[in-house]
Amino acid sequence: MIDYQEILSRYRPTQEEEKRLKIISDDIIGKINGVCRSRGLRAEAIIVGSYAKGTNLRDGDLDIFIAFDRDYPEEIINTEGLHIGHAVLPNGREKYAEHPYVSGEVGGVKIDVVPCYKMRFGDKKISAVDRTLLHTEYVNDHLDEKGRDEVRLLKIFTKSIGVYGAEAKTFGFSGYLCELLVIRLGSFENVIRYFSRAKGRVLIDRDERFSDPMVLIDPVDPDRNVASPVSLESLSRMKIASKMFLSAPDERFFQIERTKKNVQYHDRGTCIIIYSLPKPDLTDDVIYPQVYRFRSVLQKIMEAHEIRVISSEIDVSDRIYVLIETPACAEERIRVHIGPPVDTDNAIDFVNSWKARDRSRGPYIVADRLYVDVFTGQRSIEDIVRQEIFNYSIGKNLDRFKKSLEMIRFNVGMEALPILDKFFGADVFRT
Amino acid sequence: MIDYQEILSRYRPTQEEEKRLKIISDDIIGKINGVCRSRGLRAEAIIVGSYAKGTNLRDGDLDIFIAFDRDYPEEIINTEGLHIGHAVLPNGREKYAEHPYVSGEVGGVKIDVVPCYKMRFGDKKISAVDRTLLHTEYVNDHLDEKGRDEVRLLKIFTKSIGVYGAEAKTFGFSGYLCELLVIRLGSFENVIRYFSRAKGRVLIDRDERFSDPMVLIDPVDPDRNVASPVSLESLSRMKIASKMFLSAPDERFFQIERTKKNVQYHDRGTCIIIYSLPKPDLTDDVIYPQVYRFRSVLQKIMEAHEIRVISSEIDVSDRIYVLIETPACAEERIRVHIGPPVDTDNAIDFVNSWKARDRSRGPYIVADRLYVDVFTGQRSIEDIVRQEIFNYSIGKNLDRFKKSLEMIRFNVGMEALPILDKFFGADVFRT
Known about the structure:
Chain A is α+β, with helices and mostly antiparallel strands.
């Protein structure tokens, strides 16, 4: 049997931490409201996020919004928001979501101070930031003390199997989605049972407007699928982890800290190349989509050269890394070049022009088409990528780093890299 | 301009040859009828084939049928047919089509003496041999002297581009199909124009019962598509050759004898292996289907080991040869093994059982499925084929030769082989 209370006692904030969070948030709220008064701004600080909902885990962050009256123009919100943020977080740095905001630290607690418009239920235009205010209200109305701990268990579970977080890095379950799942299904174990039995798409709400792998409609915004970030992979992980937990309950499903696996690098008889770019100083949600794009560009280059991609991996740590595994480290010496069908008007031109050119074989016919085997001037994969990467966009922040692209050919004796640990340690759950 | 008369004068039988054929066939017919009389058989000799239709090319064969009254049982036809055949062709050898028959040579002319039932137009059961009698009659009724020469031109053309002959070796245009094309379209050049413009399937008759690439209904048997043996490749060759001939008329389209091409063997950076079996003493129509099957079995073995087949070739000369080209001469060291979807009941078993076994990577999730990368115990392609060939049938006459399978790895310096000439010399037209 799993001792849920013991698990909660490890990950729930201590009484001391709760006290500290209360003192810090009261202090920041007071300061923000003071600045607003002194600058004559019709705005007020509101505490939001998991702390405000009582579903926070130990060592969590504080999210504080500055809600402005709706008649302020956007520019005022942006400039005043940053001004107030810097005023209350002296060591803060500017970041950008829907509005620019300030992120800093007080007494060991990470704090985001984010400007937004005041919002009431039923108001027309709902921005992501506005919606957060309504979420806090909704969750507090629907969860009791026991429910909050059920949410905490679900967060610990999803974190430990690597599917917690809606952001582009994970495409998993947001904190709010965890809260709604517990509200809808009643308890942590009900949620797990539900996913262990789920087949195909997980439609907690049936709504044909959404084709995502999982659908759960936001109770405060009926046009929004709260589960839309959940990727098919994250959903699959959640399903299999739920099955495995029920068939053999184990503490490791509540183990947020990853014990470093003893990953063995070994010769797979393939060509593994790691492509690495400098990492721009931007948030994960800006970087990750471009890293996925970088990977898909590399896959496209391979495809264009008829080089089969066996597997791939990505990693963002000190730099951006993409790993591409192929059967060999060079393209093939010849390529079967597909010509037109024999029925077409340019069929003869194809035959005549290729008969006059250097080629390995043909033109010849298979079924109703012409083909010719051409010499490729065989190049290493690195040479191909070095040339062709400039024909593709890998995102506005990464494009300028193309010239700094580094390519590392894997060999068994090389020093450890996080992406290689991820690759060789690939597991049902994210490593 | 092409001098068709000059071409015909090269390939049409000489007057001297015609005279010799007449003497030989009259002699054989007389002898057959003599034997029939002396044995009291109600049967008579009939000359059929292209000689009987006046569409024969130089150095052709003679086909003589012994037509028996329809009330003879099959056994009598078979035994008496062979007896008569041996009587008139002392050096004859027995062969087998619908009935056994004797094939021999007289005065340098190859002669087949084939027993069959007498046949009249409208009779119910029509065998392939019976039908031949009707074809001879039909063609003689519909072709004049000029038409016969037009057929000869079409035969020379299709022979020179490698699509003459309905048998399994070629899957091309039979002599009878050439005759019908000229009867239907009027002349050699009309036929060429027709094919040069044809798009997609060539439906000279529209008949939904047939899905072959080309359809032309037999005027003596409305249930039969005379063009059914024509493969998509042969049809494609005919189309492109017709286009090329019309755009640049050239004598080489009437050059039956192949000038040996100067084929350059060269390194394609691939693995070319030639699989060779002894050739049983059987007709091409029995051997070729099994050779195609042999090739497709080799392709299936490659597919089962995820080894990509780049190209292939077959050749039947002193032995049976199949060439298979692959990127490398050994399988890969690892294989991505596809597991069940995460939703299935045995998903957990897959995970647990693979976690206990030797593997390169995983089990891991892609989309909604489980995968694991397994070690293959890398073997050479020869080793794989040597083991796996016994799990497949390659036809009743070839199966017993599996133990004699020879595998030759191509290298640039090796001695010439017809299959390599075919492979490296692959052309729009058959080499």
